[in-house]
Write a structure and sequence with these properties.
By secondary structure, the protein is mainly alpha-helical. It has one domain. The chain is built from four helices and two strands, in the order ββαααα. Strands 1-2 form a two-stranded antiparallel sheet.
Length: 88
């Protein structure tokens, strides 16, 4: 089977294929959140949750969190609406 890839911080990266590979990149302060996701995510959603939230690695998670903090603070710079127009 071909490796799946995604773009993280402008670079193409191969996605992990197992929970063990994902867990190897989980930092100690993230373990409780990771395990909560593993235990409480419905099985039909688990692959998506792991790929979207954890398989992108620590740098990807940090970048995602930085964007989320900006948006929560009301900073929408760099975002476009469905019409392609800037919302920031």
């Amino acid at each position: 089977m071909a490796k799946r890839t995604t773009i993280v911080l402008g670079e193409e990266v191969e996605l992990p294929e197992t929970l063990a590979e994902i867990m190897a990149d989980v930092r100690p302060h993230e373990v409780a959140d990771f395990m909560a996701d593993v235990w409480h995510t419905p099985l039909d959603q688990l692959e998506r949750r792991m790929l979207l939230g954890w398989a992108i690695g620590p740098a990807g998670r940090d970048a995602d969190e930085a964007v989320a903090r900006r948006v929560r603070a009301g900073d929408f710079s760099g975002f476009s609406g469905i019409d392609g127009e800037s919302v920031g």
